[in-house]
Amino acid sequence: MRLAKSIILLFAIAFIAAFTLASARENAESFFGKWVLDKHSPRPGDAPNSLETKIKQDGSGLTIESTFKEPDSGVVPLLYLGLMTNQLHLATDGQEQQQQIGPFMATFKSTMDGNKLTTEWAALIQGDRVQGRWVHTLSDDGKHMTLDIQESSTHGQHAEATLQFVRK
To answer: The domain 31-167 belongs to what CATH superfamily?
Structure first.
């Protein structure tokens, strides 16, 4: 009897673990595809022009490939650090990872919770610690994605923006 209870408990734990893993994978997959800035939604004046983002799954998380028109000034606002890069890999299990973004090394930590992908990031730029947060939120119909962006630095700079995307 004790053996039977142990086996049932083991199967229950395995089932819950498999369901949780499948659910997390399903949530990540809902973000997959090509996304473009919604031309009908308001956006900040310094937002990247012609931003297109392709999100795909790889073995250890999500890869985000982006194309955009370079700013006329040649300078990317700190608010968009990491977003205006050709390719960015994010692990979605909460593990911290480093990636080179232009001349800077940045640290990223992302988690998936339902229809939200939250990323905390930080970088050291000319002696100033800059940090930020992105929250990608997928609409219930899967056709729209909102990206809320926050950025701040140890020198008192703070900026926020919201970008609206549509699935292409």
So the answer is: Calycin beta-barrel core domain (2.40.128.20)
